[in-house]
Amino acid sequence: MARIAGVNIPTNKRVEIALTYIHGIGRTKARDICGKLGFPIERRVHQLTDAEVIQIRELIDSEFVVEGDLRREVAMNIKRLMDLATYRGLRHRRGLPVRGQRTHTNARTRKGKAKPIAGKKK
């Protein structure tokens, strides 16, 4: 198992797909990494040499914010909005949709399971 940025990436998958297991690296960034290092598209993780894994690790460390640092940065951005009491910060604090979605119906992902209200029936 190759360990990159503190994550064990799967060995039987293509390098491009396996890199997406790292928080902060999606398909586009994974393709960029493979392109910069000159790996063929069909290359699998178990076919990589130790030197190639080190190359990937060094490139990610130098050019991308990933895993713990990225999670911390996002959490600090949300905390800043909440401390400033901006509209977005208040929505985060109340657990409601932040980006303008309707809440009369739907929004169950943010609001959680529907709670019955006593005395609502007519």
UniProtKB/TrEMBL annotation:
Keywords assigned: Ribonucleoprotein, Ribosomal protein, RNA-binding, rRNA-binding, tRNA-binding
GO cellular component: cytosol; small ribosomal subunit
Residue span of region Disordered: 94-122
BP GO annotations: translation
Record-linked Pfam families: Ribosomal_S13
GO molecular function, a single term: rRNA binding
Highest taxon of the lineage: Bacteria
SUPFAM superfamilies linked to this entry: S13-like H2TH domain
Family: Belongs to the universal ribosomal protein uS13 family.
Subunit description: Part of the 30S ribosomal subunit. Forms a loose heterodimer with protein S19. Forms two bridges to the 50S subunit in the 70S ribosome.
HAMAP family xrefs: Ribosomal_uS13
Stated role: Located at the top of the head of the 30S subunit, it contacts several helices of the 16S rRNA. In the 70S ribosome it contacts the 23S rRNA (bridge B1a) and protein L5 of the 50S subunit (bridge B1b), connecting the 2 subunits; these bridges are implicated in subunit movement. Contacts the tRNAs in the A and P-sites.
UniProt-recorded name of the protein: Small ribosomal subunit protein uS13
Organism of derivation: Iodidimonas nitroreducens
